Amino acid sequence: MIKQISVDERILSANDLAAAENRALLHQHSVHMVNVMAAPGSGKTCLLLAAIRGLKDQVRVGVIEGDIASDIDTVKMRQEGVPAVQINTGGGCHLDALQVRKALEQLPLDEIDLLFVENVGNLICPVGFDLGETTRMAIASIPEGDDKPLKYPSIFHKVDALVISKIDLLPYIAFDLPEYRRLVASIQPELRVFETSVVTGEGISAWVDWLRTLKA
Ligand code: MG
Ligand code: ZN
After folding, report:
1. Is the pTM above the cut of 0.85?
2. What is the band of 2 on the pLDDT scale with cuts at 50, 70, 90?
3. What pLDDT is stored for residue 5 in this prediction?
4. What CATH number has the domain bearing residue 126?
5. Which ligand is nearest the CA of 122, by number?
6. Engineered SS bond to 74: which of 86, 148, 171, 211, CB 3.0-4.6 Å?
7. What's the gap in Å between 44 CA and the centre of ligand 1?
């Protein structure tokens, strides 16, 4: 009997194959890849810059920047002295493993310990595409509102760590942080959560200490 395969399933299995190859390549070069997913404006790039500054002396960092257009975030990363490659999806709302493969080919993998992939700003489909990463991280900011775990439970279910950003804005925004954390814990009780602000520096060192423990 011939199994009927939908177009979606075929795209996903091609992606899964490429992701497995990426994972093997990264392992071979002792690179730990972190897939960073978040909505636009969550502060991904600012947080990654803070992580780069905190890690730079002990951990060699690299960055793959995924955006629909432009290379402004890649320019910022290179100004910090880290190897960075831009992927422009040309309208695509997520990165896939084949795009990441092309970026990996342009990076000096033997000079990188921790490789961040800044995925396209979107809470929905990026989480459905394995890129070959070892760790998945979500960033959610206070201005996005405290209802996101209710509206987009999948991402909170599938990541290894959640960074709550812009907590310095809590006094100005109706955001029930204890309730938010309760919702997140109801989706994934074991999820590691960091509360951070790049403005005050609060929580950054705890998060960077955890990033330092990630091994290839
Ligand atoms: Mg960015
Ligand atoms: Zn998408």
Report:
1. yes
2. low
3. 66
4. 3.40.50.300
5. 2
6. 86
7. 5
Are 95 and 131 in contact by the 8 Å Cβ rule? The answer is yes
Q: What's the one-letter identity of residue 38? A: A
Tens digit of pLDDT for each residue in 43-89?
999 999 999 999 988 999 999 999 888 888 899 999 999 999 999 99
Quick: pLDDT tens for 15-31: 999 999 999 999 999 99
Q: Whole-angstrom Cα distance, residue 136 to residue 138?
A: 7
The ligand placed nearest to the CA atom of residue 93 is 2
- Please write down the HEC assignment for all residues of the chain: CCCCCCHHHHHHHHHHHHHHHHHHHHHHCCCEEEEEEECCCCCHHHHHHHHHHHHCCCCCEEEEEEECCCCHHHHHHHHCCCCEEEEECCCCCCCCHHHHHHHHCCCCHHHCCEEEEECCCCCCCHHHCCCCCCEEEEEEEHHHCCCHHHHCHHHHHHCCEEEEECHHHHHHCCCCHHHHHHHHHHHCCCCEEEECCCCCCCCHHHHHHHHHHCCC
Q: Which residues surround ligand 1, an ion (CB under 5 A)?
A: 44-45, 73
Tokens of 147: 């209802």
Q: Please tell me the distance between residue 56's alpha carbon and the centre of ligand 2 in angstroms.
A: 32
Instruction: Give the number of residues written for the chain.
Output: 216
- Residues around the ion ligand 2 (C-beta < 5 A): 93-94, 125
pLDDT beyond 80 at 11: no
Q: Which residue reads 């590691």 in tokens?
A: 192
Report the number of distinct structural domains present in the chain.
1
